[in-house]
Structure formats: C-alpha cells, structure tokens
Design a protein that fits this description.
Number of helices of chain B: 9
Distance between the termini of chain B: 23 Å
Distance between the termini of chain A: 44 Å
Structural class of chain B: alpha+beta
Radius of gyration of chain B: 22 Å
CATH class of the largest domain in chain B: Alpha Beta
Largest sheet of chain B: 6 strands, mixed
Order of helices and strands of chain B: EEEHEEEHEHHHEHEHEEEEEHEEEEEHEE
CATH topology of the largest domain in chain B: Rossmann fold
Shape of chain B: globular
Radius of gyration of chain A: 20 Å
Order of helices and strands of chain A: HHHHHHHHHH
Largest sheet of chain A: none
Helix content of chain A: over 70%
Number of domains of chain A: 1
Oligomer: heterodimer
Strand content of chain A: under 5%
Structural class of chain A: mainly alpha
CATH architecture of chain A: Orthogonal Bundle
CATH superfamily of chain A: MetI-like
Amino acid sequence: MAEAWTALALSLKVALWATAIALVVGVAVGFALARVRFPGRELVDSVLLLPMVLPPTVLGYYLLVLVGRRGWLGAWLESSLGIRLVFTWQGAVIAAAIVAFPFVCKSARAAFESVDAQLEEAATVLGLAPAAVFFRVTLPLAARGILAGVLLAFARALGEFGATLMVAGSIPGQTQTLSIAVYEAVQAGQDGLANVLVAMTSATCIAVLLLAGRFAPVRIPGRA
Amino acid sequence: MKWDVAIRKSVGAGAGRFDLDVAFRSDAERLVVFGPSGAGKTLTLKAIAGLLRPDAGHVRVDGTTLFDSAQGVDTAARRRGCGYLFQEYALFPHLTARQNIAFGLDAGWRNPGRDASGAAVERWLDALELRRLASRFPDQLSGGQRQRVALARALAAEPRALLLDEPFAALDEPLRNRLRAELAELQARLALPIVLITHDPADVDAFADDIVQIEDGRVRASTSPFLEEHMVPTSARNQFVGTISAVRSGAVNDEVELTVAGGQRVVAVVTHESTLRLGLAVGVAAFALVKASSIVVVAEPASAMLSARNQLAGTVAAVQPGAVNAEVEIDAGGLRIVAIVTQASARAMALAPGVAATAVFKASSVIVGVRS
C-alpha cells in the first residue's frame, strides 16, 4: 500500500513539473507561431507536433540518444555540470514534458490566433510596451484556450509510460510512476496492488478535471 | 501647422499589392479624411498613430515630428500620445467599462482592478454619462455606449490628438446624428485636434473644418493646392467656382472675396499664412467650399443686423425633407446653394419652392482653394 502512495506522489510530482515546463515553453512557442511570420513556420509546427504522433518508445529512443550518458547533450551535462538525467526522476520529467508539450503549444497557438490583433493595437496606442500588452490583453484573452491544452497536457504527462520507462527506467520510489507501477504489478501477478493503483489513477484524473472546472478563469459575459 | 503628413507605403504583393502615397497639410482642428472603402484611409490613420511604419515620408502633429524617414525619427506608437478610436471600438472584452477607461493610466504589467479609480476615470465616467454602466462588460453595452466608453478610454490617457476611424459607421442613423453633435461639441470644449476618417459625406458636412479626399491610395482633392493640381469635387455640398476679386490683408487673417456664378460674391477669411502659401491674389482662379450645415436660411431679406459676411438673397428652388433634417436648395441669382435645416425650422418658416430666402454664412466657414 505504501508503495502505491509513493508511486502516486511521484506521478504527481513528475506530471506537475512536466506540465509547468510544457506550459512555459508551449505558450512561448505557441505565441511565436501565432504572431511571428517566418519561412518554414508550418514545418516547425509539424515537427513540434511529432511527440503527439510518434510511438512513445521511439520518442524515448530519441531522448536516450540526446540525453543518455553517451548522448551528445547528456555527455556534456554530466561532464561539465554533473547532471545525470537517465534513470532519475528529472529524466522522467523531461520525457513527460516533451510528450505533453504539443498539447499546450497547439492550443496556445490557436488561442493566440483567435485574439483580435486590433485589441493589441488599442493597448499599444494607450501607452503599453509589448510585454505589458501580452500580459494584460493577449494572455488573458487566450487563457481559456491555453488552460484546455494544459489540462490535456497534465493528463498526458500523468499517463506517460513508454518514453519514461526508456529514459528513467522503473526504480521504485525514484522513477516508478503510477502507470509504470500498474504495469509492474500486473507483470508480477499482484492483482490487489494493481487494483489499488488503477483506482488511484482514476480518482486522481477525476479530481483534476473537477479542479479544472472550478479554477477556470472567470467567464466573459456573453461569450461562450 | 496642425497636421503635416506625407507618407508612402506599399502593402501586399502581386495582384493584391496596394500603394499608398498621400500627402496633406492642414491647420484644421477638425480634419476629415474622406474616401471610399479601400482608399487607404485606415492605413493613413494607422501611420499617424504609429501602428503602421511608412516606407518613406513624415508625420508631424502640432509641430511635433512623430515620424521622418529622412531624419530617422520613428516614435513608438505607445509614446506618440495619439488617442485612437477603432471602427468597432476595440474595447477589451475581459475588462469592465471602468477598467477599460482606466487602462491607459498605468502602463505596467497588471490590469486595473474592478474598483479602479482616479481623477481621469471619474471625470470621463461623468462627462460621457457612463457612471451607471461602469461595471458592465463591453458585451453588455449597446453600440452607442461602447463608442462612448472607447472615447472615454482614449481621452482619459490625455492624448495630444484624437484619431477616429469611421466612428459612426457601426451605429444606426438617429444615434449617428446625436453622437456627431456630441463629438463636435466635445472637440470644441477640449480644443483637441481631431482627424476623422469616413466614407459618409454626412460626416464631412457635420464635422469638417477641412477635408482631404483620398481615393485608391492617393489624395484626390484637398484645399491645399500643392498637393493636387486640379480641383475635383469634394464632399462639401457647396462648391462655388470663381475668380478672386479682392484680397484685403489683416493683421492675422486676410479676407478673400470670390466672384462666383451669377456674379455673386462670397467672402472668406483665411490666415495670412494661407494667402501666401496658396498665392491668393486678385484674378486667381479659385473655388470656395461651404458645408450645407454651415448655412443658415433666413426668410426675410437679410438685414445689416447680422454679423455674417455672406448673405445671398434668392428664392427657394427645392425642399427635400429627411428624417430629421430638410435639405433646402436656394437659387440666389443663378448660384445654387444647398443648406441643411431641421424639419421643424423648415415647417416653421414654411419653406417651399418660390418662397424668398437668404442664405447666410460666416466668412470663416468658407474654405478657399486654388484651381490650376
């Protein structure tokens, strides 16, 4: 039972970190895709969508090549900064963040594109610098759309299995998240534990959805 | 010079390419840029506000250079201090009327709260009768109310000038008439230079001290002859073509007399600077523009008791009733003059074809231009 709680806590920690990273990066990239015109914009958009369609194992393999101990980024991180990502919970965060990223990025781009550019112009002539325009007009008006993406991203991060397993492995208490623990329990024939884990996962997901409904931004009157 | 604008800008490419090349100067407090949709009016206004960067040219408002490609001046839109009223008002939908009005008072990263306050906010809530609507969101306001909130938002930021993009286009007719009058009155009270762009001749009649007519990205007519060689019709309803028969110089202003159709004389007051700039002199082929709404119709033969310099006696040729106003055409010895009066006045004066009437208008309401 204790290991179930451990797995849940780890899952939440990993998913929250992953969602936070996906949120910041996804909103920034989504904004750039929506507002900045550059050649190859749609190609970039497609490439960024890859984590959504690639099999998680393929993604995990890519990650190992990149941040593995002999990967070119991983080797540099370990030799110069002493950071090791493989078989750590931080590695699980990276894997989950990449899988969750497209959900935020895609919905953020759509949300930013739906914001009337004239409102940004109105804010500009009223004396606001670009950053202030973003935080006072663009972001609040895009918030609902972004939040929808964030929820999907969190759910996806929470359920992440394949890439996490390849990058972070299945170390109980360190990298064994709920979804991996379920797999391990079933493999080991521990049906009782599997039941608890599955119930826990389901309850967590329902709680997340309920919370999201409660904390959704104030509805703008007259708008659906 | 209140307005000194000369801009060139190409937008789009290929078949969709549009070249804007407009230049005008005016000393009018209320300048109307008039032209059909797609003429480049909004682009011109955005270039003045700094929302569009011209390829070349300059923008000077009230003597301050906001943009000059030759001097490398390009003041950021947020520092130009131009109030801008967007066609659909562009109110922030996530903020209440009060928050919208307070929006420009603080340029920080956080929006004003629901209880935002301050002298400017309170002043404009009262001045534009918005107090009971203060806590409403834009979607809960009618078209006219939205316009007033947008106006209050622009004015609260204390702009150096106000730029209005088709301010009445989104409103229905009766409301349009009322808000035109309100805006004109507000402008007079604040002495704030205004540029209004429109495709509606009625806006010109109701509002313009000076007109710039643009079409297909070019200035077609303006009262400044160095912009355009040939005189072409403007939206002012009365366009009297004639020859200057006298120029009387004063200390600041000069009085210019034109002899127009039917041998009638029209007197105009222009600044001495304009006389020199336009080369106004006896014998010069010129034209006079008078808005129909600037003309007062007097039933009795005009008396010396009126201060207006122009009193052209004649008979009513036609009366065309409208919803609120009537259009009266007077034949003054061969000169056709169109005046707009209220329906009530037309009825009270029993204006009908054949009735004796005198068209009276001030010399300062006449705009003079030179024909090439």
